[in-house]
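Question:
Now give any protein.
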Amino acid sequence: MLANRIGLGLAVLGATAIMAAACLVRIVDGAWILIAASIGIGASALWVSRGNHRGADLPVALCILASVPVLAGAALQHGSVSLLPHAIAALGLAISLAGSLLLTRRPAAGGRFTDPPTPPEFRSIYSTDASCPRCRRPIEAPARTCGYCGFAMNRYRRR
């Protein structure tokens, strides 16, 4: 759980640095690539951190794809143009990649959450029919959100 939060924090920090680099470049010169990469990396990292482990490779792939234009742009720079935006974007991509790699850690047992068995004295707290539709863990009936994955139960129950 801690690695998930650290990974999300690093990915968002890196995406923020990429967006800051985009502010230093004109749209015509490729700032739109940095903006799209920043939004894509941040959004996909948030999506993976919310329990969607099947797409855990998406933020890593976006970091690698976004590094190609950044490195190519730095290599093709003319003498009068500053390398500062490229350096900031490369640093942001490195930080985002480190955070995205932390997010690729999957739950134990092939993608299923495994918990120790519930002691018999606590089994009466949970009703057998109240379980989260996303992670299938037992939850208390009046709960608004799942305590394990954050699924909004009140939206689900209204339908």
Notes: The chain has two domains: 2-103, 117-159. Residues 117-159 form one domain. Helices lie at 2-23, 27-49, 57-75, 84-103, 153-158.
